[in-house]
Amino acid sequence: MANVSRAAIISDRRITGLSADVVAEIISDVGPLWHVRHQAKLVSRPRKRAVGAGARHQLVFVDRLLATLVHLRHAATRDLLACWFGVDRSTITRAIGEVRPLLAERGCTVSRGVRLRTLAEVIDHLGTSGKTGIIDGTEIGVRPPAAGRKDRGKFVSGNGKQNAVKAMVVTNGDGRMLFCSPTQHGSCADITHARQLGLARLLEDGPAAEILADAGYQGLGAQTGG
């Protein structure tokens, strides 16, 4: 990607949802981790050429990060991002697959020196701080799975009547995101997804925390003392 296009993405908060300072912070935090894992992958398999030989990356790390941020912000298709960044669709798919886990491991910074990486840390933070949390499921439409796939029907959402994947999101009372779960099939009920993630156990065993939820989680209170 040209430097002008890259600068435009970073400078316009509407594209990634993040300020230029936050993007720069993520680059400094995640970039070294990506390079370490990339080098480890290169040396872990038999090679006919030395590490570093051959063609250069078509997509440098910064562009891989930006493509992932745009995809997460707007659910942009990989085909669209491939056209924008001037690479193949497979390159975008590989980039997102590499960067997303690193962003998840980095977690969410809620205050100076406090970063939440797991659902357990989020529940503990809400309990110890006395703040109210809000929980809900969100769906993202996806392409229909390939014909003949055994679990093809599981992607059809009962709410949206479309193929989708679902994530569970936890925010604080002001709506600031604290946690976003790995995705589940669109047909998975909100309360089932919450139980699979261990939310009931965390609320039962952890500090008392107030969590607001809609009727999709009705019944969870009985397992968590209200």
Could you characterize the architecture of this molecule?
By secondary structure, the chain is an alpha+beta fold. The chain has 2 domains: 3-106; 110-223, no CATH class. 47% of the residues lie in helices and 15% in strands. It contains 10 helices and 7 strands. Strands 3, 4, 5, 6 and 7 form a 5-stranded mixed beta sheet that branches. A two-stranded antiparallel ribbon has the order 1-2. The longest helix has 24 residues, at 20-43. The N and C termini lie far apart (52 Å).
Question: Major beta sheet, specifics?
Answer: 5 strands, mixed
> Which whole number gives the mean pLDDT?
88
**Spatial extent as radius of gyration:** 20 Å
Structural class: alpha+beta
Poorly predicted regions are none
How many runs of DSSP E, i.e. beta strands? Answer: 7
- Count of helical segments? 10
Number of domains: 2
Oligomer category: single chain
Gross geometry: globular
SSE pattern: HHHHHHEEHEEEEHHEH
% residues in beta strands: 5-15%
Calculate the terminal CA-CA distance, rounded to whole Å: 52 Å
What portion of residues is helical?
40-55%
Task: Break the fold down into its secondary structure elements and pairings.
Elements (H helix, E strand, L loop, with lengths): L2 H9 L1 H4 L3 H24 L17 H14 L3 H8 L3 H18 L1 E4 L2 E3 L2 H11 L3 E9 L22 E9 L4 E4 L3 E2 L4 H7 L2 H7 L5 E2 L7 H4 L3
Parallel strand pairs: 3-7
Antiparallel strand pairs: 1-2, 3-4, 4-5, 4-6
Helix pairs in contact: 3-6, 4-6, 5-6
